[in-house]
Design brief:
- The protein is mainly α.
- 60% of the residues lie in helices and 0% in strands.
- Among the domains are: 57 residues; 54 residues.
- This is Scaffolding protein.
- It holds the Pfam family DUF4355.
- InterPro entries: Gp46 (IPR025580).
Amino acid sequence: MLHRIMRLCAPDGGGAAGGTGGGTEGAPSGTATPPSGTTTPPPDATAKPTPSFDDLMKDPAYKAEFDKRSQAKADEAKAEAERVAKLTAEERAAEEKKKFDADRAAFEHERLENEATKQLAQMGLPVEFASQLIGKDATATLANVQTFGKAFTAAVEKGVNDRIKGTAPKAGSTGASGAPGTGKSALMTAVTNNQFKR
């Protein structure tokens, strides 16, 4: 909770002055508790401690920004409440149904993406493609994943075969450096010549 407030109070809106938070909601302000199972590195002597919310509110710039944003949120909520109060029962019901349908569609989309990710992982394929393979329902999504799996595997296999195939070197015409005349016979000639020089 503290890190959210500190992020809200930051002049740039990104939480630059508030740090990453890291604390828990029930922790006293200014303290950070590491997640369970982790160790905290020793504090750096030059590192500045994260300021508490109270410390930030002492700075007039932060307080003014916090007040401005708080007032904007309150005004927005008030305007929405007044708008909804003016609606008839039928309009309210239609608006709630529209919101419910949007939430349901988002949930279904997320469920299908999770299923596609699971299927791709089971097939050993990159899960980054899951969002592009979502169909109108689970059956269509599964069919898309299977079609993609076949095409992806065929493309990888073709690429590997093309690389393996290459061009076969002519026996004795090229050596390790690839230059003509450096084959086995040239190596033997060089060894023989070297022995005779000694």
